[in-house]
Amino acid sequence: MRIGLLTDGGYPYATGESRLWCDRLVRGLPQHEFDLFALSRSADQEQQGWVRLPDRVVRVRTAPMWTDEDDRRHAERPRGLTGRLATGLGRSYGRRDRRRFTAHVTALVGAVCAGAETGSETDGTDAGTARGLFADGLYGLADLARERGGLQTALRSETAVRIVEAACRAPGTGRTVHSATVPDYLAFAAELERALCPLSLDWYEEDGLGAVDLCHAASGGAAALPGLLAKRFFGVPLLVTEHGMPLRAHYLAAPEAALGAPVRALLANFHGLLASEVYRQAAVITPGNTHVRRWQERFGAGRGKLRTVYPGMEAERFGAVGEEHDGGGPATLVWIGRIEPAKDLIALLHAFAEVRRTEPDARLRIFGAPVQEREGDTYLAHCRALAAQLFPDEATDAHAEGDNPVTFEEIGGPEVPDLAEAYAAGGVVVLSSVVEGFPISLVEAMFCGRATVSTDVGAVVEVVGGTGLVVPPRNPRALADACVELLRDPERRARLGAAARARALELFTVEQNLAAFRGIYLDLAGHAPPRPTAPAAPRGPDGPPRPFATPPEAHVLGAPSLEPVAAGAPASAGAPRVPSWAIGGESVCAGARGAGDGDA
Hints:
alpha/beta, six-stranded parallel sheet, disordered C terminus
């Protein structure tokens, strides 16, 4: 099969959350070819380049989801918007196209404004109407962009801003949206243009997304948007994988964020409506855990489409540690992760103060990289100051140098050269987060056979099962009691660590992840429309018959007589799509391997 892998800010770039699991997927399924369609998130990400791509990546096409600062400032000025109107809608679009554009944007923005107070996940006639209007506007704009070569100038025009203003002031909109001002209209129009950037790409051609057998979106939202259009224009089935819920971040956007409350409400509802449409059109949805699955069901994902597939992680790198027993000392607690407010190291430090009252020899080693909030004011600095206040340097006498029981360390030094050694540095691994998706550090600790104490957030309970202690978040006393309980019971620590390792090896390895997607790919291929019965399977360019060239359904008595559709041909209402692997002859993209043969 030929898979169109759709990413947003991840693979093949050297940074991004999806780069690791996508690379493992591509390398672990050598029987398939991959076309990579990647959206980048920043200029810095593009400058850092790509990871090395395997040969089975036939082609790479990229597009930015960002603009330089000068363009952004220009887009925020009313005069600049008026100028873009003259060169965009005035010259590029005729009168009919301007009417179409106005109608589609009005439908889409009207749907967003109508549900911005309650959220599109609510049931009822109003929510269904909003979803229908949103879909009509979205696909209408997609058709217009494909015919006229893009929408960037039109979406930045004064017409678009006036449509946003009218929708926000329409009767029935909520108080937050109704209070929007001119800067809010401009800001939302700019964000809307950025979110709809995939509509204006040149990927929707017969030799582009029309040439793949399956679109696999590595996340929802912007990454899945090209997959929606590939299904609309060519009938390509869509598979959506989500390991986290970026949609949740839009609903929990901090009040002190740069955008105002009306804009944040509008963006949250836009992404909610987009997620609902993606889930409605997807053939299969693979959440990375039950926590994500609940969010997907909340936004309309049908249970028959959902198949939970845990992220695959490399167990081999932690194998040696997993066979050890308390290699780092039974009285040491270890925390590993990104040092940011969501990890709640403040609660952990207060909990460790309680631990020290009953276990004076206990130590806490914090391994992590800081995340800068503002220049000169980092969360790491705050945590260091609190640790110095709670635990003054201890010394045996007046002439000895003091020692603090809490240390902040980075992985890669002589004492802790790699991640596995960090987990080996303690007998208990602690996770203190208040917000968490799929807890990767917890799975790594389980691979290492370590007993864990975690807060009940995200998918923590699902991952741990019964192999670790779980306490409520933001509760230092409960966190301290659980840590003391394990520090005092070495037999229970060893028992829980062994059970955790066995659970991780059963559920969270790369092998189980690849096996799941291998089966899903074949399942989607098995539901492809059958070709007419043929006397013999078509032969590939090198002679042997092509696999899956004649689907089994073609031999069933009474099977419908279907006309074959050429590879890459647009799907029509009465002509079912036949995948490219079911058609004889050479690959439609033979020799197009140049873009993915190495580093960028």
